[in-house]
Design brief:
The complex is a heterodimer of chains A (297) and B (197). Chain A starts with a helix and ends with a helix. About 8% of the residues of chain A have low confidence. In chain A, helix 1 runs antiparallel to helix 2 and helix 8 packs antiparallel against helix 9. By secondary structure, chain A is mostly helical. Chain A is built from eleven helices and no strands. Chain B has two domains: 106 residues, Orthogonal Bundle (Rna Polymerase Sigma Factor, Chain: A); 71 residues. By secondary structure, chain B is an all-alpha fold. Helices cover 71% and strands 0% of the residues of chain B. Chain B starts with 7 loop residues before the first helix and ends with a helix. The chains are: A mainly alpha (297), B mainly alpha (197). Chains A and B meet through helix 2 and helix 4 of A and helix 2, helix 4, helix 6, helix 7 and helix 8 of B.
């Protein structure tokens, strides 16, 4: 805004408290929405770091391969030169080679003609048509895609995902210092801080604290678009049976699988069924809505 | 993109253009040789750890992106110099917040960042904003992110697969109103609004 216009507007604000309040509210909302841009940029920075790390891991191997190739080339050239040198020296210093005398080839005995073995009366193997007829047809895979336009599964997952579903209620202070730090990182969108500090912990008898941190890790993976990792961690938490994390993880698992559709089609159905079979499940209503959306019977 | 000459003008234009041009420009800046090392050296020499340096480096890019989009970068210095100035300013601010005082004040660095009031609101009410944002759904968040980056409604409709720009406009309005409602229902935010009057 040009300086004169800015001054005029500020004077207007000073005269009109209602306008000033509206502008202030708009400014606060603008500050809040900037956090979305910041979160997205942080996720991209993590991706760029991963790409850079991957390149650096490959570079030494490439250098080694190039060195080997050059060594092999040099060895081949040396071999050819050595062979040529030997040939030249031999040719100049040696006696003339003996004359080759043509002799008639000896007639060898005819090899026995190969005969096909006689077919015995063995039961013939069934033809593929007979096999197809006799075998039970494979159980039909339930079609989750309804007739009509294709479903954008990722968008559906976006509609159902709420980060808040995996966060403790406001005012709850429980949890270790590491968990609370991780929670702050999650809320700030610093997912790399979580994925770098919390490692997958697949103990058979985890404590509640471990499961809490694994939940942060799962959500951080999900928000970083690492859906396969999110799936693994959610699946693990679900098997621990430690509530409410296990039930939240069952829902997180469904959303992670949904994000990986259609590749994870066969895993999504049982995961959704695990919630739909229990009306008391906290995510039962959402699972019903999701199933309706996907038109799964 | 590979054939672009990444001068300061190209980087700034890319950031302001939005979309993939912005992503590419920011990535070039993030991976610019020597930039990260300069920030790391400064933070390490001024009482920070390597992790602190990495955090400051990332925050500097977030702040630079915002400043360029909001017209606060006036090209009085090279973009890399501006970036390092932001990082130094940010490190001084963080040290003050941690109670580690220094003779240097943020005003020692002539990176025009943002008003102290805005910076304070952003930090103090971050949790409040985050909570409201976490309740509006991923699709609304993505739409509002594009809206915040000044994408046109036609662009938003294309990216978000809406049928038309009108539908995108209605959805943007709905999401903004939802965000506003969540903020206004929060007593802390209501107090923040009230304090202004």
């Amino acid at each position: 805004m040009p300086v004169e216009e800015r001054r005029a507007f500020e004077a207007e604000l000073a005269r009109d408290p209602e306008l000033e309040a509206l502008v202030h509210q708009h400014r606060l909302e603008h500050i809040g929405l900037e956090l979305l841009v910041e979160r997205d940029l942080r996720a991209k920075m993590e991706l760029w770091d991963r790409e850079t790390d991957l390149l650096q891991q490959l570079r030494p191997k490439r250098a080694k391969t190039y060195r080997l190739i050059w060594i092999a080339r040099a060895a081949a050239v040396a071999l050819v030169l050595a062979a040529g040198y030997w040939f030249i020296i031999r040719k100049s210093g040696e006696a003339p080679a003996p004359q080759v005398v043509q002799t008639r080839p000896e007639r060898k005995g005819q090899p026995p003609a190969w005969r096909k073995p006689q077919r015995r009366n063995e039961p013939t193997s069934p033809s593929s048509a007979e096999v197809a007829q006799n075998e039970l047809p494979p159980a039909p895979i339930e079609e989750m895609q309804p007739e009509g336009p294709a479903i954008d599964y990722a968008a559906v997952a976006d509609d159902f995902f709420r980060e808040q579903d995996f966060l403790p209620p406001r005012g709850v202070k429980g949890g270790s210092a590491a968990y609370l730090q991780g929670l702050r990182s999650l809320q700030d969108g610093r997912y790399q801080d979580i994925t770098q500090t919390i490692k997958p912990d697949l103990l058979s008898s985890p404590t509640t604290e471990v499961v809490q941190q694994q939940e942060l890790l799962a959500v951080a993976h999900y928000q970083s678009r690492q859906y396969a990792d999110a799936e693994t961690t959610f699946r693990y938490i679900a098997t621990t049976g430690i509530q409410p994390y296990a039930q939240r993880a069952e829902w997180g698992l469904v959303l992670s699988l949904l994000k990986q559709m259609p590749q994870r089609r066969s895993a999504l159905q049982p995961a959704l069924e695990a919630i739909l079979s229990r009306p008391e499940h906290p995510f039962y209503a959402k699972a019903q809505q999701l199933a309706k959306h996907l038109k799964v019977e | 993109m590979a054939n672009i000459d990444w001068s300061d003008e190209a980087l700034v234009s890319g950031i302001r253009a939005g979309g993939s041009a912005r992503d590419e420009a920011l990535k070039r800046l993030y991976l610019m040789p020597g930039l990260r090392e300069t920030v790391i050296r400064h933070v390490l020499a001024n009482g920070g750890s390597r992790q602190d340096a990495q955090d400051i480096f990332q925050e500097a890019l977030v702040i630079l992106d915002r400043n360029v989009r909001e017209g606060r970068y006036e090209a009085r210095s090279a973009l890399s110099t501006y970036f390092v100035a932001i990082a130094k300013w940010r490190w001084v601010t963080v040290r003050r917040q941690m109670g580690r005082y220094t003779d240097l004040s943020p005003t020692h660095y002539d990176a025009e960042v943002e008003s102290p009031e805005t910076a304070a609101i952003r930090e103090e009410y971050r949790e409040l904003f985050q909570e409201a944002l976490s309740q509006i759904g991923e699709r609304c968040r993505e739409l509002l992110r594009l809206y915040q980056l000044d994408h046109s409604m036609e662009e938003i409709a294309q990216i978000m697969h809406y049928n038309s720009a009108d539908v995108a406009k209605k959805e943007a309005y709905r999401c903004r109103m939802r965000f506003r409602e969540l903020l206004q229902n929060n007593p802390t935010f209501a107090a923040l609004l009230e304090n202004r009057r």
